[in-house]
């Protein structure tokens, strides 16, 4: 049975965790290799797979089996954090990040619900204990993969609001002297390193502004709030950086496809390479436009009906038409989809967004509570 779940993870679960499933997919190569040498990480990987398989087949999740697998995971992580004499291993860090990822995808996988932000905080503490962001080097494939996985959850979690800390991997961390690499669309993230850097900076500034524009007493937005001059200048530069990055010529995936041709969904023209590049560019642009919406709404305090906000919404919806339904790219677009959905004013746009969110649920990803999402989108019309 364990072998069944391991194979399911390799052949199905790992493929939908990246927007572009190619031969460099670290969830199919690096993570399983690490799991083979660490029993707790292996058990968590199997739990991840079992949860996804049950959701995909619309079966009840094997709660007892998952509980048995993960019973030693939490004590091991606590020991790793509290034992000052023992080094925190990459497997420890991968386990903490995977707990956050699993809690996002399947919030009811464990008997006791722990917010994914809590797991991410544990991962953050581990990274700091290992030397912080600057201790991660691109040539170390394992630590670089884990840093990108963490940063993806960290930055998008911060952009999603709440009381998250500012992103650990700040904008400066992603600076790259090689412009070609800077504008290489990352097959794990779905956008370029330049975009990651800008999104991290937007998240930092939005977090600062949220503390000013949202009432600490009622939790409501202060209607007459306006940013100060320093914030306006920072926002202006961020907007220019977003535009410059979005207009730059991108480099597509340099790796060979991972999925065998017979299993890959074909476009009408049968050109897989063309579809792959089209999807990667569309995904990258969608995240740029989502960043602009957060900048306009949360930093500049613009209204939902603002022309620039609505242009960004329209561009995100337009990008969805360039992404195949049921594919890996679609499953990784929930952040820009939901960002656009909260400010979509046209019924046709909202219908497209809800259709795509429903489609993602069919892939076995339950990180979107559909009834709750519908209520949020309906409420955001005002």
Key phrases:
382 residues, mainly alpha, 17 helices, 60% helix, disordered C terminus
Helix content: 55-70%
Through-space gap between termini: 51 Å
Question: What's the pLDDT, averaged over the residues?
Answer: 84
- Run of helices and strands: HHHHHHHHHHHHHHHHH
- Biggest β-sheet description: none
Report the uncertain regions. Answer: 258-270, 369-382
* Percent in strands: under 5%
Radius of gyration from CA coordinates: 20 Å
> How many strand units?
0
Account of the protein in words:
By secondary structure, the chain is an all-alpha fold. About 60% of the residues lie in helices and about 0% in strands. Helix 6 runs antiparallel to helix 7. The radius of gyration is 20 Å and the shape is globular. The chain starts with a helix and ends with a helix. The C terminus is likely disordered.
Summarize the topology.
Layout: H1 2-13, H2 30-36, H3 39-56, H4 63-70, H5 73-82, H6 90-105, H7 116-129, H8 141-159, H9 179-182, H10 193-213, H11 229-247, H12 272-299, H13 307-320, H14 328-331, H15 334-343, H16 347-361, H17 370-379
Helix pairs in contact: 1-3, 2-3, 3-4, 3-6, 6-7, 6-8, 7-8, 8-10, 10-11, 10-12, 11-12, 12-13, 12-15, 13-15, 13-16, 15-16, 15-17
